[in-house]
């Protein structure tokens, strides 16, 4: 890792906007990453550092990059709806999947993050996608005890099934 990139990653980790801005101005890669592929944008999204997320996106960071587990910054932003909104407004894939087929909606379901799940749904997340275990987001919500999310997702699934039924 280049020294400049290390400075950017350190600044992002502690939420130091000015230091992150200086590191980028000084030549740090906007897509600087740890050895595990965890980029500056992943770090900022995970920590809810909205100004830094915007700084990185405005400087051309790859919004759909993947870490070594296949997680995108949007997957990592679950629990931070304002960060998720910024990523989605910048073109992040609302249904981006990991190598195991896990979507951001499935992550929100697993963590019981109702506000995040609602935002993803408003932004067009598909409720019927299945991961490698053949589970939907609703299945995952039920498995994790996120009953409110399971009911919400089930109601959307039944509405779409009802609207597709012949009259």
TrEMBL record:
It comes from Inhella proteolytica. It comes from the Bacteria. The keyword tRNA processing does not apply. Keywords: ANK repeat, Repeat. This is Ankyrin repeat domain-containing protein. The keyword Oxidoreductase does not apply. The lineage of its organism: Bacteria, Pseudomonadati, Pseudomonadota, Betaproteobacteria, Burkholderiales. InterPro entries: Ank_Repeat/CDKN_Inhibitor, Ankyrin_rpt, Ankyrin_rpt-contain_sf. ANK repeats lie at residues 36-68, 100-132. It holds the Pfam family Ank_2.
């Amino acid at each position: 890792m280049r020294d400049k990139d290390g400075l950017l990653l350190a600044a992002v980790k502690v939420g130091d906007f000015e230091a992150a801005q200086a590191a980028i101005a000084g030549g740090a890669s906007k897509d600087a990453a740890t050895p595990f592929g965890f980029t500056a944008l992943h770090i900022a999204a995970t920590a809810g550092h909205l100004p830094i997320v915007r700084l990185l996106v405005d400087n051309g960071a790859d919004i759909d990059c993947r870490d070594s587990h296949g997680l995108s910054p949007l997957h990592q932003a679950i629990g931070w709806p304002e960060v998720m909104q910024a990523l989605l407004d910048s073109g992040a894939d609302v249904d981006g999947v990991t190598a195991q087929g896990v979507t951001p909606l499935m992550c929100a379901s697993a963590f019981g993050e109702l506000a995040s799940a609602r935002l993803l749904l408003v932004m067009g997340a598909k409720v019927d996608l299945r991961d490698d275990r053949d589970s939907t987001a609703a299945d995952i919500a039920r498995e994790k005890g996120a009953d409110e999310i399971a009911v919400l997702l089930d109601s959307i699934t039944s509405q779409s099934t009802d609207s597709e039924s012949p009259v």
